[in-house]
Amino acid sequence: MESSETVGKRVMLFLSSFLDKVMRRLGRFFSARLRQDDGQTLMEYAVILLLIALAVIAALTFFGGQVLALYNQVVGSWP
Length: 79
Prior knowledge:
The protein is mainly alpha-helical. Helix content is about 90%, strand content about 0%.
C-alpha cells in the first residue's frame, strides 16, 4: 500500500499534468479562433476564459500545499 505522501504527490502530478494539457488545448483553440475574423464577441470570451484559467492556476499554486496536506490527512485517517 502506498503512503499518503506518495499518493498526494501522484495527485499533484496528475493535476499539474491535467492543467498543462488544458492550457495547451485552450491556447490552440484560441489561436485558431483569433485568426478568424468572426467578431469582437469571440475575443471577449477568450479573454474571460483566459482570466478564469489564470485564476484557477493561481489558486491551485497558492493553495496546492494546503490541499495536499488536507488530502494526506484524510487518507491517513482511513482505516
